[in-house]
Automatic annotation (TrEMBL):
Keywords: Cytoplasm, Methyltransferase, rRNA processing, S-adenosyl-L-methionine, Transferase. It holds the Pfam family GidB. InterPro entries: rRNA_ssu_MeTfrase_G, SAM-dependent_MTases_sf. One of its GO terms (cellular component) is cytosol. It is found in: Cytoplasm. Belongs to the methyltransferase superfamily. RNA methyltransferase RsmG family. This is Ribosomal RNA small subunit methyltransferase G. It comes from Anaerobutyricum soehngenii. One of its GO terms (molecular function) is rRNA (guanine-N7-)-methyltransferase activity. S-adenosyl-L-methionine binds at G78, F83, A129, E130, R148. Its EC number is 2.1.1.-.
């Protein structure tokens, strides 16, 4: 079965119907990912079936906890090779996306993907979240923030929540260890004016690893102190 047929069938199991244009975009993204990965460390996952499952379908799992049709603006913090941002943008082209990564080479790759796939309403920014979150054009500007970054939930929330408008959401993609992080994140939620609204535990079809989506609602404005300067959140989590 060719790539597009496999992806279409797999997406339908998740009740996601992909158009011929979207399937073409996913295939081109896959090809660019594999080709660029030969010279730049983008992903350890290169097998076709695994990319479909662990990158594409996993990225789209956000819809399990969010009504994406009500999201107008979204920021992906620590996007890396474009996950979950690029797959979400392909499936929800009407959403305005900003992808943030601290490595300029990866941002260059994302801009090439944007051009090749014809993704309008998408911006890739080079910078650290703790610096960009102080930019008035970005702070408290997004309906939704998403992140598959591997940082501890308290650390990640300090980086991500400042980008979210009041009554907006942050969805953190986690593995099973995320359950322990939730237990230790209550002080962080209180300080940042947030609450954990939903925790969705699930498995992907071809992957035994447990996954979590942690949906956090921002209830009030983020204190100006946060995020703290680079390195501080990791050394001294809230």
């Amino acid at each position: 079965m060719e790539f597009k047929e496999k992806l279409k069938a797999r997406a339908l199991k998740e009740e996601i119907s992909l158009s011929p244009k979207q399937l073409d975009q996913f295939e081109l993204f896959y090809n660019m990912l594999i080709e660029t990965n030969k010279s730049m460390n983008l992903t350890a996952i290169t097998d076709e079936d695994e990319v479909i499952e662990k990158h594409f379908i996993d990225s789209l799992s956000c819809r399990r906890v969010m009504d994406m049709t009500k999201v107008k603006t979204c920021i992906d913090v620590g996007t890396g090779a474009g996950f979950p941002g690029i797959p979400l943008k392909i499936v929800y082209p009407e959403i305005q996306f900003v992808l943030v990564d601290s490595l300029n080479k990866r941002v260059g790759f994302l801009n090439e993907v944007k051009k090749a796939l014809g993704l309008e309403g998408l911006e890739a920014l080079h910078g650290r979240a703790e610096d960009l979150a102080r930019d008035k054009s970005l702070r408290a500007s997004f309906d939704l923030c998403v992140s598959r970054a591997v940082a501890n939930l308290s650390v990640l929330s300090e980086y991500c929540i400042p980008f979210v408008r009041t009554n907006g959401y942050f969805v953190s993609y986690k593995g099973k260890k995320g359950l322990d992080e939730i237990t230790n994140a209550q002080n962080c939620m209180n300080v940042l004016g947030c609450k954990i609204e939903n925790v969705d535990e699930f498995h992907l079809e071809e992957d035994e690893a447990e996954r979590l989506l942690i949906k956090i609602k921002k209830c009030k404005g983020t204190p100006k102190l946060y995020p703290r300067k680079a390195g501080t959140p990791t050394k001294n989590p809230l």
